[in-house]
Give the backbone structure.
Amino acid sequence: GFRVERIPEELEFAPGLLDFLEDSHLIPGTTGRVTASSPDGTLTVEVDGVTVGVGSFASQRILVTA
């Protein structure tokens, strides 16, 4: 599993991305698990029982701990 530690400021400038992350509960302090990963860097994660896909731009920048 993982715990979201920090959302970098860089992601604030991607239109709609912060809203998507908040709607998906991918905010600091939440925990989840990676259920799949694609060669292009896209991750499928489960947070609070909801499964969402996170593109490589965001997945490579969100700071998480295991």
User: Anything to note?
Assistant: The chain is about 15% helix and 40% strand. The helical segments are 17-23, 56-59.
